[in-house]
Amino acid sequence: MKESLSLVQRLSAHPDSRCWFVSWSPNGTLLASCGGDKAVRIWGREGDSWICKNVLQDGHQRTVRKVAWSPCGNYLASASFDATTCIWKKKNDDFESLTVLEGHENEVKCVAWAPSGNLLATCSRDKSVWVWEVDEEDEYECVTVVNSHTQDVKHVVWHPNQELLASASYDNNICIYKEEDDDWECRATLHGHTSTVWSLCFDATGQRLASCSDDRTVKIWKEYPNESGQGDLSWKCVCTLSGFHGRTVYDIAWCRLTGALVTACGDDGVRVFKEDETASPDEPVFSLAAQVTKAHSQDVNCVAWNPKEAGLLASCSDDGEIAIWRFQEEN
Amino acid sequence: FIKMSGGARLENANPVIFQRSGERLLTASEEDEDVHDPIDDREIFDILSINDPEHPLSLEELNVVEQIRVQVDDAGNTVGVEFTPTIPHCSMATLIGLSIKVKLLRSLPDRFKIDVHITPGTHASEEAVNKQLADKERVAAALENSSLLEVVNQCLSTRTI
Prior knowledge:
The complex is a heterodimer.
Chain A: E1 2-12, E2 19-24, E3 30-35, E4 40-46, E5 49-56, E6 64-69, E7 75-80, E8 85-91, E9 94-101, E10 108-113, E11 119-124, E12 129-134, E13 140-146, E14 153-158, E15 164-169, E16 174-180, E17 183-190, E18 197-202, E19 208-213, E20 218-225, E21 233-241, E22 249-254, E23 261-265, E24 270-275, E25 286-292, E26 300-305, E27 312-317, E28 321-330
Antiparallel strand pairs in A: 1-28, 2-3, 3-4, 4-5, 6-7, 7-8, 8-9, 10-11, 11-12, 12-13, 14-15, 15-16, 16-17, 18-19, 19-20, 20-21, 22-23, 23-24, 24-25, 26-27, 27-28
Chain B: H1 28-31, H2 41-47, E1 70-73, E2 78-83, H3 93-107, E3 113-118, H4 126-134, H5 136-143, H6 146-156
Helix pairs in contact in B: 3-4, 3-6
Family (chain A): Belongs to the WD repeat CIA1 family.
WD repeats (chain A): 22-43, 57-89, 101-142, 146-178, 190-222, 293-331
Keywords (chain A): Repeat, WD repeat
């Protein structure tokens, strides 16, 4: 089996600026990007190429750091260094600003929608994670502020099928949160990385979590029932990928269709890892399946698998560009 | 990112002043326009003529930056600069490091990866400062703060003596 990662298209997404993040819509037809130019752009396919469909310019006063689609695909949330999170509603082919979530003391680093569509999580340099509830009238209300990290929180991600949240921080740790009596609290802290944890993602079933760090490694964590048999969660690091990345690993994504892992690195590379099917689930083995060492001319900040089209991948960089790739396995 | 205090007392009132290095002597190869000059440590060092935030002196004159503590790999696209705060509890250390980083980011081609850190053993909070300087998201957000950017630009402005 020979694998390859080939370039489909390069887009000059955020000119004279850096592109911080890309996110595919749930049906895989649109790609949202955001960057240092304070804008959010929406990209769609026209024939064989990707073109810019919308530019959402006036939502933020500073860098837009991340964007996230709601599970239904009708809403887009954008998180900004201006300390706010903007919620956009898709109306036909346009997007209008619905509401602005305020409250964080400084830069919002991430926003994520829960699979149910009723909850949203944000995190910030103010060290907190906020959980917001949205009702049928599109009203947003903060239900919990959790302060489990001792430093800047870089990323939050929801479990694919449980009401469980995970966060990654400059304090080198990962926190796992569950709801207890209408309040969200930290149920587990995962230690292991020796520097800032930049990003996290769950696998398709949510039994495993992958994290990536400034320590140049990727770690795979697995959930185990607690020894004492009580409800609490226990996560163990079952695999560490080291020696593959030359600099900080900024992002990681786990394909829900194929199980492949992809990383975004500060050494300008994009790397795809595949799991060895014969290894024990308690000691998984991942090997490098394909890489593009010079995927961009500068740091790669984000990678995202298309949720519907297996092998289709988007990456973005400090050079302001988005690249679309095809990961193929040929027999 | 940094707390700027408005106090009037200088942290280091009597710094030791070092001599400035002389003009660079050009070789024949360097003078030839058709030959690509790889960027070397002297060139980086020359880029780093930066003002100290407290004194009307340059970082070179205070020995905060030295040519020997500049590491350049032109082919590998990396530049490393170690800087030495004049005193171990210098609260300007993050600001100085940030100024060095910004000067290099503005002066060098985009292909370069830039690492700025404190000379090991010379500062009480060197790990914390180094971690902030290495975090490009923190640096980017800090530079969007107009008052901090103003202070950095003052450190980087060409002085008229």
